[in-house]
């Protein structure tokens, strides 16, 4: 495994373009403010000092771009880590919540009747609020807030809270999400006939996949990830069982949404593709062979392995699971590892 020292690189990820996707271990405000970057394709490990990750809040997206927000001015930009290109966006009027995720929906692949402008969408994981901005809105562009209603979350003995979206994917200009009820899918359609961007919500029923065990017990998916692949909506499920009061993985599976039948169809062949999953419901896809990954595999870098910096590789065709990771110690992290993925071919940053 290759490794370099802080300062060996000018601070740009462009030199690592051939090694994308990258698993990033951010060390935060340490003396050299560096990031350790692992290429899961070739196992190389490098250390960078990225200026975009100093004094900026960074939200990575499944589309490959990163939303960066200046901590002082709240000025925003979309950053392409592959090319170092930045596209300015308007400043926000207040700091983002601690827990949120970001998506980019470009309408180059959307249906004509849905034809909105391209949007950056930030969704709060703790309250029902969306924040959106047109990518090519020009001088009139601004961040617009929109609330929604998914009902209340009630736990005996604890304050009642409003439910919020936790899993979302952008597919052909539409934002799909899991509703609070297990078998409901929501879709947010953006519209362009209003001076400001807005989202219209619709829902439909689609039974969440279940696992029927030989002993007659039916398991519901314990963890799910929504993602876009090849202009279709996919769901990846992890099924766990309880053994001696601890969770053990029983099975995993990938499913494609049939929007005509409104049902999930299990698939064990996703072609020359790989899925990349991370904390907070992050889920992306990319071409496997082009980027040196295993075809038809799911790379799962989440907290299921405790404090380990390892990640899992699920082979959908073979039904196997492999645990791997960096072969040297990683310094203390300021946040959980996250993915930087190749920029989606449908994303256009031209103004």
UniProtKB/TrEMBL annotation:
Domain of life: Eukaryota
Range of residues in the leader sequence: none
SUPFAM superfamilies in the cross-refs: Galactose oxidase, central domain
InterPro entries, per database record: Gal_Oxase/kelch_b-propeller, KIB1-4_b-propeller
One Pfam family named in its UniProt record: Beta-prop_KIB1-4
Start and end residues of each KIB1-4 beta-propeller domain: 38-315
Protein name listed in UniProt: KIB1-4 beta-propeller domain-containing protein
Species name: Urochloa decumbens
Lineage per the UniProt record: Eukaryota, Viridiplantae, Streptophyta, Embryophyta, Tracheophyta
């Amino acid at each position: 495994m290759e490794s370099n020292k802080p300062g060996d690189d000018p601070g740009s990820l462009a030199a690592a373009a051939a090694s994308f996707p990258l698993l990033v271990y951010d060390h935060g405000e340490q003396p050299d403010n560096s990031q350790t970057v692992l290429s899961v394709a070739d196992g190389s490990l490098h250390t960078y000092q990225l200026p975009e990750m100093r004094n900026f809040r960074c939200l990575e997206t499944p589309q490959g771009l990163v939303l960066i927000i200046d901590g002082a001015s709240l000025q925003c930009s979309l950053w392409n880590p592959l090319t170092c290109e930045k596209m300015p966006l308007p400043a926000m009027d207040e700091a983002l919540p601690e827990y949120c995720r970001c998506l980019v929906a470009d309408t180059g692949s959307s249906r004509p009747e849905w034809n909105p402008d391209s949007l950056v969408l930030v969704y709060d994981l703790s309250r029902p609020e969306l924040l959106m901005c047109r990518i090519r809105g020009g001088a009139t562009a601004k961040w617009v807030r929109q609330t929604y209603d998914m009902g209340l979350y009630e736990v005996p003995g604890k304050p009642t809270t409003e439910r919020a979206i936790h899993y979302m994917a952008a597919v052909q200009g539409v934002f799909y999400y899991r509703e609070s009820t297990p078998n409901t899918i929501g879709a947010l359609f953006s519209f362009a006939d209003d001076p400001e961007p807005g989202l219209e919500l619709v829902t439909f029923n689609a039974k969440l996949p279940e696992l029927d065990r030989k002993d007659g017990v039916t398991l519901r998916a314990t963890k799910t990830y929504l993602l876009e692949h090849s202009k279709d909506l996919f769901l990846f499920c992890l099924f766990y069982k309880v053994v001696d009061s601890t969770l053990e993985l029983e099975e995993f599976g990938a499913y494609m949404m049939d929007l005509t039948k409104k049902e999930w169809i299990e698939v064990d062949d996703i072609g020359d593709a790989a899925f990349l999953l991370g904390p907070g419901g992050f889920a992306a896809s990319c071409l496997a062979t082009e980027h040196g990954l295993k075809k038809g595999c799911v790379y799962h870098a989440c907290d299921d392995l405790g404090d380990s910096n390892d990640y899992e590789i699920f082979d959908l065709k073979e039904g196997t699971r492999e645990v791997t990771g960096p072969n040297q110690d990683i310094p203390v992290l300021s946040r959980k590892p996250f993915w930087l993925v190749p920029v989606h071919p449908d994303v256009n940053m031209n103004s």
